[in-house]
Amino acid sequence: MKFDVIIHVFGEIYNIEDVDPDDFSLVRLLSDSNLISIGERIIIDDYFKLGVDILGAKGSDADEETPISRMARYMIGREVIESTRTIEFQEGQIFEDGYHFRKVLKDYVIQEGFTLAREKNEKTRVSAKCGTYNYPWRIYASQLLDGVTFKVKICKERHTYIRKTKNAKVTSNWIASKLESLIQSNPDVKIGVLENDLRTTYGVKCGKQKIYRAKKKALDRMGGDHAGSYKKLYKYANIWMIQNLGTMALIKAARPAIIDNPQFQRFFLSFLAQKQGFLTGCRSFIGLDGCHLKGPFGGILLSAVALDANSGIFPIAICVCEGESTGTWGWFLNLLNEYIGEVETRIISFMSDRQKGVLASLQQIFSQHKTRFCAKHIYANFRGKFSGLKLMGLFWAAARATNAQDFKRNMDEIKVVKEDAYKWLMEIPFCHWSRHGFDKSVKNEHITNNIIESFNSWLGESRQKPIITLIEDIRRKVMKML
C-alpha cells in the first residue's frame, strides 16, 4: 500500500511506509495538506472510541513503540460521569476542556465541603490540593495533544476530611445554575423551599440574600428567552398567514410616544382548520375564559373552546393580552366575530364565568346570540353569603331543573330556608344558569364552564414557556386532535 503523504510526529519526519498500516488507520488525513502536525492539533479521529489494544500498539519493530502509537496511548481516557448527587475523581478521566474540568472540580469541592488551594491554574494545566494543613489530597490535570481536552494525571485518593456546610465556592451564580430548572418550573417558589433543597440535595447552607440573588438571576435568564420569543412573534405570525392560507394572526402593539419603540400588547390566533372544524362539526356552544401566564412578563391567555360532536373540547381561538378587561375581551371577541361569527348562521350559546368585561362585550358584539353563566362560580359566590348543605343541594337541584315546575319547587324551598338567599339568586335571570331556561335550539345541557377549565389544565406547564413555545404547544395538541 503506497501513500504520497509525510507525517510530522513529535518533531520527527516519517514516511508512511515506516509505520504499521493499522497504526496509520488511526490518523485522520487532512485533504487540503500533505503535511500533518500533531504537536499543534489532534489528528486522531474520535479518540474516545479507541480500543485498549492501542495501548500496546507497536510498529514493525515489536521492541520499540512508534510515535503514532505513543500519541494514541496518551489520548485514551475515561470520560467523566457527572451526577447531581456524587462526583468522584479518578486518574485517567478526561474532560471536554479546561472550563469543564474547573466546573466539575468546583462542584466536587462543594460536595466534599473543603477549601481548595490552587498551586497551578493555567490555560494548559491545573494543580490543586486541600487547603487543610498537611492533608494529602491533591489533583493535577492538563491538556492533551489536541490542545483542548483535559485529563486527570494525578489524583491522590478521595477527600475524606471533616466536611463543612458553608463554602465560599457556593456563589449566587452556582446556586442559580443548580436550581434553575426548579425556579423556572415554579417562578413563585419561596426562598425557604430553595434553601431546603440546597441543604438536602447538595448539603450546603447559605444566607437567604444569596438565594434571593440566585433566584433573580435564574428568572432573568428565563426572561431573556421570553423577551427573544416576543421579538420573533411578528415573523412567526407572518409565516403562518403565508403558509396556511386562511389563518388569522394579528398583533397589537402600543407606542406611548412616536419616538418610543412599539411594545407588545395583544396577539390573536386562529387557524383555518379550527374555523372549519367549528362551523362544520361542532355544537353551537362556546366556552370563554382566561388563565394567567406564569412567565416573567405575566399576562393572560384568553381562549374560546367549543364542543365537538362527541362532546370533547375543540379550541377555536386564543389571545395573549395584558389582562382581563372590557378592552381586551372586546378586542378578542370582535376578532372572533369577524373570523367566525359573520359566517355562522346558528344561534351560539356562550358560557362564561362573568369575568370583568366579558358580558358587556358579548352583549355588544354577539347581541343576537345567547349567554350562560357558570353555575359553579355562581355557587362559589352564593356559598360565601349563604352556607349550608341544605342550601347547596337545593341550589344545584334548581340549576339542573329541566322544567319550570321543578325549578319553582326548589326555589320555594330555598325561600323557606333563607329568604335572603332566594332574593339573591332571583336577581340573576334564571335563563342564564338554570337548565330549563336555556335556549332550546342550542341542544346543550352544560351548566358549568368545565370544558374551558379542562382546556386550561390541558395546557399544563406550557403556560410558563415563552410565547412562541406556548403557541406551538397548543398548535401541536390541536393538530393531533384533528
What keywords describe this structure?
482 residues; alpha+beta; 4 domains; seven-stranded mixed sheet; six-stranded mixed sheet; 16 helices; 16 strands; elongated; Transposase_MuDR
Describe the structure.
InterPro entries: MULE_transposase_dom (IPR018289), Transposase_MuDR (IPR004332). Pfam families: DBD_Tnp_Mut (PF03108), MULE (PF10551). With 482 residues, this protein is of the alpha+beta class. The protein has 4 domains: 70 residues, no CATH class; 77 residues, no CATH class; 59 residues; 173 residues, Nucleotidyltransferase, domain 5 (2-Layer Sandwich), CATH 3.30.420. The strands form 3 sheets. It has a 7-stranded mixed beta sheet, with helices on both faces. The longest helix is centred in the middle third of the chain and has 24 residues. It is elongated. The chain starts with 5 loop residues before the first strand and ends with a helix.
Shape: elongated
Structural class: alpha+beta
The chain-level mean pLDDT equals 79
**CATH top level of the largest domain?**
Alpha Beta
End-to-end separation in angstroms reads 62 Å
Largest sheet: 7 strands, mixed
Helicity level:
25-40%
Oligomeric state of the chains in view: single chain
The structural domain count equals 4
Strand order of the largest sheet: 10-11-14-13-12-15-16
Q: How many whole angstroms does the radius of gyration measure?
A: 34 Å
What does this entry show, briefly?
With 482 residues, this protein is an alpha+beta fold. It contains 16 helices and 16 strands.
Topology:
Layout: E1 6-9, E2 12-15, H1 21-24, E3 35-37, H2 67-75, E4 78-79, E5 93-95, H3 98-112, E6 116-121, E7 125-130, E8 138-143, E9 150-155, H4 172-185, H5 191-202, H6 208-231, H7 233-243, E10 248-254, E11 263-270, H8 272-281, E12 282-292, E13 300-308, E14 313-321, H9 326-339, E15 349-352, H10 358-365, E16 370-373, H11 375-385, H12 389-400, H13 404-417, H14 419-426, H15 450-459, H16 467-481
Parallel strand pairs: 1-3, 4-5, 12-15, 15-16
Antiparallel strand pairs: 1-2, 5-9, 6-7, 7-8, 8-9, 10-11, 11-14, 12-13, 13-14
Helix pairs in contact: 4-6, 5-6, 9-10, 12-13, 13-14
